[in-house]
Amino acid sequence: MKNQPIRFHKLHGAGNDFVIIDNRSDGKHARFDGKNAALIRRICDRHFGVGADGLMLISEDTDSDFQLEYYNADGFPGEMCGNGARCAVWLAHLLGVTGRQCKFIVWGENYEAEVLENQQVRLKMNPPTFSAERQNLQSLCDNRFPEMGWLNTGVPHLVVKSAENLAALDVRKFGAYFRYHPKFEPEGVNVNFVVPESEHQLNVRVYERGVENETLACGTGAVACAIYAAQQWQWQSPVRVNAVGGVLQIAFDPDFQQIYLTGPVATVFEGELNELYFQNNAVVNQ
Questions:
Q1: Annotated catalytic residue within 44, 81, 87, 102
Q2: Is 84 inside any structural domain?
Q3: Are the CB atoms for 36 and 6 separated by under 8 Å?
Q4: Among residues 284, 275, 273, which one has the least CA distance to residue 6?
Q5: Quick one: DSSP state of residue 104?
Q6: Do 153 and 237 fall into the same domain?
Q7: pLDDT digits (tens, 9 = 90+) for 134-181
């Protein structure tokens, strides 16, 4: 990678934005080393880099259409990112890597997706998991946050019902409080603050682990919110999740074995990390 230009694409899914690099070994591209956490942090930095909630690498896979590596903005691998995966599927389709339907792998886990009309991508999610030791969260509830629940939809999520208007909520303050709470050690948790808008429709703001800040949307978080609503409030599929950056639709069967996340994707711009960029950012390799 040293001194060779790296082509990148910046995309967003409902405002959740990502730098995606075509990392296939076809001789047409300089390859990116995902082990350089400091460089990933710099690229994702909104002042010193491209700016993004995360970075992804698309590469070949012998058993599927492509392999996807996802890294959070802190430079370290993230288990799964729903909106990021949808963006990667869209880009892979544009690059001719896949047709409208595809199968791909994220850190050894298999996923399926489909490119729909109007720049929508539908992603089939894996079934959620639950933790008995993290189901009794009553001690964390109060008048501001009267109920909450934990589940894993590819990454761990806490769904917190807010009694306050979300627009006035200090998401960074309260999100960090729950994200680092000892109850969720050692891995921490993503935090989704929800207010039901109407039956089958939720308003959501989210604090993402690895970004350590509010993001405009979170795909795995939207799925977690929908499943929580189905379990606790007996909502039926589909559930509409209104994130700050856009609308996500979650469809599911009663047993949560067939879960689909659908939402918008868009290319923001393309660019190149050239030799001058790496020279100016040499400090990140120290």
A1: 81
A2: yes
A3: no
A4: 273
A5: E
A6: yes
A7: 888 999 999 999 999 999 999 999 999 999 999 999 999 999 999 999
In the annotation, is 225 catalytic? no
The answer to whether residues 198 and 271 belong to one domain is no
For residue 164, the enclosing domain spans 132-256
The tally of domains found in the chain comes to 2
Q: Which two tokens stand for residue 17?
A: 């934005």
Instruction: Report yes or no on 261 lying in a domain.
Output: no
Q: Tell me: do 94 and 72 sit in the same domain.
A: yes
Looking at the fold, whether 103 and 24 belong to one and the same domain comes out as: yes
Task: Report how far residue 116's alpha carbon sits from residue 139's, in angstroms, rounded to the nearest whole number.
Answer: 43
Q: For the domain that residue 41 is a member of, what is the CATH number?
A: 3.10.310.10
From 44, 87, 102, 218, the catalytic residue: 218
Spatial neighbors of 148 by CB under 8 A, at least 6 apart, are 137, 140, 141, 158, 159, 160, 161
Q: Which helix (H) or strand (E) holds 152?
A: strand 147-152
pLDDT tens readout for residues 225-266:
999 999 999 999 999 999 999 999 999 999 999 999 999 999
The model's pLDDT over 21-77, given as tens digits with 9 standing for 90+, comes to: 999 987 667 789 899 999 999 999 999 999 999 999 999 999 999 999 999 999 999
Same domain? 16 vs 119: yes
Query: Is 218 in the active site?
Result: yes
Q: How many CB atoms lie within 10 A of CB 272?
A: 11
pTM, two decimal places: 0.94
Nearest to 203 by CA among 249, 240, 178: 240
Same domain, yes or no, for 140 and 29?
Answer: no
